Amino acid sequence: MGVSADRSTFPLSVGPLEQWAEVYRYRQAVRNLVTRDLKVRYSNSALGIVWTLAGPLLMTLVYSLVFSFFRPGGISHYPVFILVGLLPWTFFTSSIAGATASISGNGHLINRVYFPREVLPVANLLSNAVNFGVALLLLFGFIFYYRIALWPNVLWLPVIVGVQVALMLGLGLLLAAVNVYLRDTQQLVDVGLLALFFLTPIIYTLDALSPSLQTILQIFNPMASLVAAYRQVLYAAAAPNLPVLGVTALQALLLLAVGGLVFRRLSPSFAEEV
Fold first, then answer.
1. What is the DSSP string of the chain?
2. Is 26 within a domain?
3. Given 202, 216, 226, 264, which residue has the most CB atoms within 10 angstroms?
């Protein structure tokens, strides 16, 4: 994997900048892990990475058929509407589930060689980011087909993706560290993600809810505001709600700081626990 022999992990005094600088120095290890994950994921698969496109497409077809009988009024270009919500949600769930198991599932690496333990959840997130990027090609195909004019608000897309990545990395680090010591975390995450699906405006719009419920969802469920932002930019061809997106960005950065701190404090004992 391109890492050196085992040595002690970070001292607790190491700050967040040194923490991420160390991860950057091991970027080759991250690259190798991402490559390994993608190869394993699509090995012995006839379609390979095409499943990244086929999965969301099949889900869109199912939702389109089901909701064709009782589709909420005012929703046009329904495949785009569904995909704009479904793709970032799939990116979120696959990254969080993978990050949670990234440390406990790689005990053979942790006990054999030294590398910053953050490399594992980071590599998991990046491999899912590759799938997300490929899946976006399908979305832009539908956007082109339905002639939705995105310019210039599409320039907000990298900002929204960046906020989501920060959110997932912070939450992933936190859950990965906790799961080492409390293995029930993985099951709780699976149940929590299922419940969170219905609290995220994927198959419905935020406008269908009361203003007070909209505010509650966007404050306590950052993915609700992020999906709404994706939908504003890629479906409504409008700018996102900047005050709401700003609050979500602050939440993501705070979670990233907390997740990094907890991970850094617990990581010295990972080898003993896994």
1. ----B------TT--HHHHHHHHHHTHHHHHHHHHHHHHHHHTT-SSGGGHHHHHHHHHHHHHHHHHTTTPPTT--SHHHHHHHHHHHHHHHHHHHHHHHTTTGGGHHHHTTB---TTHHHHHHHHHHHHHHHHHHHHHHHHHHHTT---TTGGGGHHHHHHHHHHHHHHHHHHHHHHHHH-TTHHHHHHHHHHHHHHTSSSSS-GGGS-HHHHHHHHHH-HHHHHHHHHHHHHTS-S---HHHHHHHHHHHHHHHHHHHHHHHHHGGGHHHH-
2. yes
3. 226
Domain enclosing residue 55, as ranges:
16-273
Domain-embedded: residue 4: no
Residue 11 lies in a domain: no
For residue range 215-233, list pLDDT tens digits in order: 888 889 999 999 999 999 9
Full pLDDT tens readout for the chain, 274 residues: 444 444 444 444 466 778 788 888 888 988 888 888 877 776 665 555 666 667 667 776 776 666 655 555 567 888 888 889 989 999 999 999 999 999 988 888 888 878 889 999 999 999 999 989 988 888 898 899 989 988 899 999 999 999 999 999 999 999 999 999 998 899 999 999 999 999 999 888 888 888 888 888 888 999 999 999 999 999 999 999 999 999 999 999 999 999 999 999 998 888 887 7
Residue 178 lies inside a defined structural domain of this protein: yes
Provide the number of structural domains found in the chain: 1
